[in-house]
Amino acid sequence: MSILVVAEHDNNAVNPATLKTLAAAKAIGGDIVVLVAGKDCAAVADELAKAEGVSKVLLADNAVYEHQLAENVSKLVADLGKDYSHVLAPATTTGKNFMPRVAALLDVAQISDIIAVESADTFKRPIYAGNAIATVQAEDAIKVITVRATAFDAVAGEGGSGSVEAIDAVFDNDKSEFVGEQLAESERPELTAAEIVISGGRGMQNGENFKLIEDIADKLGAAVGASRAAVDAGFVPNDMQVGQTGKIVAPQLYIAVGISGAIQHLAGMKDSKVIVAINKDEEAPIFQVADYGLVADLFEVLPELNEKL
Amino acid sequence: MKILVAVKRVIDYNVKVRVKPDQSDVDLANVKMALNPFCEIAVEEAVRLKEAGTADEVVVVSIGPKAVQEQLRTALALGADRAIQVETDDMPDSLSAAKILKGVVEREEPDMVILGKQSIDSDNNQTGQMLAALTDMPQGTFASKVEVTDGHVSVTREVDGGLQTVKLALPAVVTTDLRLNEPRYASLPNIMKAKRKPLETVSTDDLGVAVKRTVKLLKVESPAERSAGVKVADVDELVDKLKNEAKVL
Ligand SMILES: Cc1cc2nc3c(=O)[nH]c(=O)nc-3n(C[C@H](O)[C@H](O)[C@H](O)COP(=O)(O)OP(=O)(O)OC[C@H]3O[C@@H](n4cnc5c(N)ncnc54)[C@H](O)[C@@H]3O)c2cc1C
Ligand SMILES: Cc1cc2nc3c(=O)[nH]c(=O)nc-3n(C[C@H](O)[C@H](O)[C@H](O)COP(=O)(O)OP(=O)(O)OC[C@H]3O[C@@H](n4cnc5c(N)ncnc54)[C@H](O)[C@@H]3O)c2cc1C
């Protein structure tokens, strides 16, 4: 078996989801080759060559891959992927964008968002907002798979001794063009990789009140998340949404503040190790999954919590 | 400009599914079904483009058994002009769905195809991207803003790091995210009017597509249940438990 893992990175550093995807590759078993496609991203390739279990890194360094445009990256990955038994990428918005194109170009199915490897062709994946777990068997010769990073423990980033090989395949297109991006700047840890996440919901009432959460987050070194209702209402930006259709998190500690606990929200956080819920409604469904529940007004609790930590 | 919108019939988002005792699948008997919420957003966007004078026709398509006609009527009531049902006994897998949609695209020649970013049942998030690859169209996935200007569409996308904007030459594929719009409710007169709008049924043979399944569903289980923990009386007790019992602080 030979596995191609498509690395996620920002041309400077490896996204931790890549090391978790490598763990899924290791569980499948076989020779593991990593593809780093981007612009001026040789440092990323060097870093990944040291990751546990990587035999080789293919480096496609060209301006056409700078912004991971799906039209270009999918053609590159499909072209390389036809020589492998498995093609894997993290189920991030980047992976979700180009991988189904790869599957279609290879005329195979895609298995989305796997959470466990049963064997080289059988995987587990959540369906219906995580209310059921399907075991599926892929019969295609090439398995195209996206991996839910929170379900796997990262491989070691050091100690490996893979080689780096530059490849010069260039796939460009004249139909799509990158215009710009507005990326959230934050000193806090990345939501999906943080040890502690504290999220606010509609109960926060407005964006300014999120300061109450941010102060605690900064004390704990935590990331800040939100429910869809808080994002829709414009309290916080979209990249903070936790849930079925937002980000999946599984930190050591998840604190839900003013969040009712709709199934779509639970889908994104119920695999957290310890869950705390702060809500003034004792009937709120969030308490059914919380290890520790505090029935109280968040506007009284948060300042006190900040003080006592 | 003509817009094609693909809509899927799924379980209503308020319903929590149960797994069948024999673990063969989830139990969908007597469960409330609805238009996939992301598809509703897709229909709304197309109808708004028509109302703004940018589009002149909105065609909706759904693949599946006769029951999907119910969701097509819903889409017509929301403002689509006509509907196509591609009749299949079963739900095809995503790649087959994309191949069938490609067949519809070849017949209808739309300038834009709008799909939901994901179905809330399979949570697959792949059909739109597959359709784009098969038809060699550019794609703007997870859209929170769509702007059409002479022969192009600018799509603002919700990505993990924030927002990204791409410019695509038409025809293009767009998939919707939650913030793109807030779908309207169908009014009673529009629901009545929708009954008289054209709804055509075609077969996969008509489109020349063979449906295949290469992913076998072996088993469906309930996830590990979390049990409710304890209620704490105050902040002091909470901090104490987190430090000394859970040891996460
Ligand atoms: C297709 C689709 C996809 C979705 N995807 C997601 C998703 O990915 N993530 C997600 O989160 N949701 C998602 N949702 C939305 C989900 O169904 C809920 O609507 C949403 O999670 C509710 O957010 P909330 O808990 O903040 O708001 P509400 O349900 O309104 O709850 C607010 C809570 O705050 C409490 N509260 C209010 N004031 C106070 C106070 N002063 N002190 C303490 N508590 C207080 C209330 O008791 C209440 O329980 C999706 C929905 C659909 C249809
Ligand atoms: C629980 C479950 C288990 C399944 N197991 C298998 C399996 O083992 N093997 C297998 O091959 N298939 C299986 N399927 C079927 C398949 O995965 C999908 O249901 C469907 O065919 C393709 O849509 P999607 O959910 O992948 O779409 P997504 O890619 O998640 O949906 C994106 C968008 O595509 C469009 N779209 C999707 N489907 C249709 C449609 N029918 N008509 C019109 N537009 C559509 C909609 O705009 C939708 O918003 C299963 C489905 C479910 C619900």
What profile does the largest beta sheet of chain B have? 9 strands, mixed
Uncertain runs of chain B: none
CATH class of chain B: Alpha Beta
Strand portion of chain A = 25-35%
Q: Give the ordered list of helices and strands of chain A.
A: EHEHEHEHEEEEEEEEHEHEHEEH
CATH topology of chain B: Rossmann fold
Determine the number of helices of chain B (DSSP H or I, runs of at least 4 residues): 7
Please state the overall shape of chain A, judged from the principal axes of the Cα atoms.
globular
Helix content of chain B: 25-40%
Termini gap of chain A: 50 Å
- How many DSSP-defined strands of chain A? 16
Task: Please give the CATH class of the largest domain in chain A.
Answer: Alpha Beta
Keywords (chain B): Electron transport, Transport
InterPro entries (chain B): ET-Flavoprotein_bsu_CS, ETF_a/b_N, ETF_b, ETF_beta_N, Rossmann-like_a/b/a_fold
Family (chain B): Belongs to the ETF beta-subunit/FixA family.
Protein name (chain B): Electron transfer flavoprotein subunit beta
